Amino acid sequence: KRDGMIGNIYSMGLALQALESTEMFYAPREWDCAQAFSVVYSHDYRQPMAIAQVLPALVGRSYLEAADLNCTRSSGTPRGEDAPAPWQCAGRPPCPSPLPPAPILVHYSIVNKLQGLHFNNTISVHVPAGSTLLKVLQAAEEKEPKVFSFQTEQTFWGPMVVSIHGLAANPEDRTYWQFLSGTDALEEGVGTYKPQDGEHIQAVFSTY
Fold first, then answer.
1. Residue limits of the Transcobalamin-like C-terminal domain (predicted)?
2. Which of 59, 111, 148, 150 could be bridged to 140 by S-S, CB 3.0 to 4.6 A?
3. In what order do the strands lie in the sheet with 167-168?
4. Residues forming the annotated binding site for cyanocob(III)alamin?
């Protein structure tokens, strides 16, 4: 894409590794990686799998070169008792606990126009600022459990929503729950995406 994105933010790590490892085969010009790396630098990766895939590209090595890495500790690296201690309130009363984040309002809709009885339900919930989308789903379920119940499965990329309102995704009929902010599909999962105050999140039963 013109902004440097290759697929989506989660495919960037492996894509950069592949492009860096095969640059000798490019013709008639070299691949300009500046835009792609700017996308990676500007994203706040939180999923361990995504971090594991993007780090090799950031240090200029792919998984194919992992066997050649020299992991000898640098003599200047502090360790054990030589490492600097964390900052403390020395000589002062205990540090005060930070104030809890102010709540934000998130609008959440679940939409099914594909199978069985169609539905389109919306709820507004308050969650602390900085909460993930998963917290929004949990707040909605707690407020109206008969309507906004959901189930997740744990994956290497974090929790994945597989069922909402009793309607489960099914790989045989290629259905899944797609999450959108307004009309834009989210590129992060429910365990990492953090909605903003007043944002409208939709979970739409979709096909691929």
1. 130-202
2. 148
3. 150-155, 158-164, 167-168
4. 8, 53, 186, 208
Q: What is the pLDDT of residues 16-49, one digit of tens each?
A: 777 777 666 655 556 567 777 787 777 777 777 7
DSSP 79: -
Annotated binding site: 8, 53, 186, 208
Provide the whole-model pTM.
Answer: 0.61
**Residue 186 in tokens:** 């989210």
What's the pLDDT score for residue 72? Answer: 56
Residue 124 lies in a domain: yes
| CATH number of the domain within which 129 lies | 2.170.130.30
List C-alpha distances in Å: 48 to 24, 134, 191, 195. 30, 17, 12, 21
Cβ atoms of 106 and 135 within 8 Å: the answer is no
Of 156, 155, 150, 147, residue with least CA distance to 134: 150
Q: What is the pLDDT of residue 115?
A: 93
* Residue 76 forms part of a structural domain: no
Q: Are residues 130 and 183 in the same domain?
A: yes
Domain around 42: 11-65
The answer on 196 and 108 residing in a single domain is yes
Same domain? For 107 and 40 the reply is no
State the pLDDT at residue 177. Answer: 97
Based on the fold, state whether residues 113 and 56 are members of the same structural domain: no
Total number of domains in the chain: 2
What is the helix (H) or strand (E) element at residue 179, kind and residue range? strand 175-181
